[in-house]
Write a structure and sequence with these properties.
Elements: H1 19-34, H2 38-41, E1 46-51, E2 55-60, E3 65-69
Antiparallel strand pairs: 1-2, 2-3
């Protein structure tokens, strides 16, 4: 996969995620970041995450946010 490597522990809220959610966040981030063009990758580096019952809310460097779902999708 071609994605921007990040230090997940520096994403605000990462250390508050459950172990399962940490793995899910990392897997989906890598897939999400790898499928987009290089111009897009830099702006979509996560800066803050928060765990909810059915998704992880991810806020990015450019101000956008997405939900990462337990089935491996985002939206």
């Amino acid at each position: 996969m071609n994605y921007i490597e990040i230090d997940f522990s520096k994403v605000k809220g990462y250390n508050k995620l459950s172990d399962k959610s940490k793995r899910l966040f990392e897997e989906i981030y890598k897939r999400h970041n790898s499928v987009v063009g290089n111009y897009y990758k830099e702006d979509y580096q996560p800066i803050r995450v928060k765990e909810y019952k059915n998704f992880i809310e991810v806020h990015f460097k450019n101000g956008d946010w997405l939900h990462y779902y337990s089935n491996g999708t985002w939206g």
